[in-house]
Amino acid sequence: MNENTKARLNGLLLSAAHKIGLFLAMTVICLPGLWIVLASFRPTVEIMAKPPVWIPEDLSFDAYVAMFSGVGQGGIPVIEYFRNSLIISVTSTAIALAIGMAGGYAFARFRFKAKSSIFLGLMLTRTVPGIALSLPLFFVYSKLGIIDTHFGLIMAYVALNVPFTIWLIDGFFRQVPKDLAEAAQIDGCTRWQAFWQVEFPLAGPGIASAGIFAFLTSWNEFALASQLTRSVNSKTLPVGLLDYTAEFTIDWRGMCALAVIMIIPALVLTFIVQKHLVSGLTSGAVKG
């Protein structure tokens, strides 16, 4: 066996090992989601079976039929929960992106006093878990009278997402050469026009990445939402999962069905912006 054949064989073996490793990793990552989807179609007997029933024997749409047939008739108010989640997530993401773009651009382009300290302080706020903030926020919101409102939850999620969006967008603006904006200004553009027409399009992948992460954080958040919401007027889908729990029983199939409903918008949004998301993760987070 000559050297070229050995090198080709080693390359094939490494490629095969790499693909097998990726397949195993994806299996581990996707297995919980697949299990939730299957559990939403299974009878409760199979879900609670010990040892687990890996291959379903009886599948039905009963959980989904029961979920939507009870809308407006005293059942789980899925439509209201979905509406609340959509309003809160989209609004908080838009506000966080607007602040993140302004903050990220300022940190990337301007020099000002205590710049590093302010940036570090923003990043440190992101390390505080949401559950640790729930009790102080509850007392503050009670005094302000914004418990059980969209506004209160939106403000909490904006504060939660702004540090990350600033960090990610700052990395992208640092990679956009200043010379491009300066050249645009020489050609007659104002500073604002140079930003929107030159710098903003080049930083688009980073902004899309920050947006999808901010949206998913707001869409899936439970700890703060469970403390700051009380009624159907403001409860989100994660909090709505608790409607399937009783004092002594849990409707696992119904809970999994609602979880599937939660997953679908996130999957659709991720699929739509996946091109920007991949490019954003591979290039924008590395600071220049």
From TrEMBL:
GO terms for cellular component: plasma membrane. It comes from the Bacteria. The keyword Transmembrane applies. One of its GO terms (biological process) is transmembrane transport. Keywords: Cell membrane, Membrane, Sugar transport, Transmembrane, Transmembrane helix, Transport. The chain crosses the membrane at residues 20-41, 85-107, 119-141, 153-173, 194-216, 252-273. InterPro entries: BP-dep_ABC_trans_perm, MetI-like, MetI-like_sf. It is found in: Cell membrane. SUPFAM superfamilies: MetI-like. Residues 82-273 form the ABC transmembrane type-1 domain. PROSITE patterns: ABC_TM1. Part of the ABC transporter complex MalEFGK involved in maltose/maltodextrin import. Probably responsible for the translocation of the substrate across the membrane. This is Maltose/maltodextrin transport system permease protein MalG. It comes from Shinella granuli.
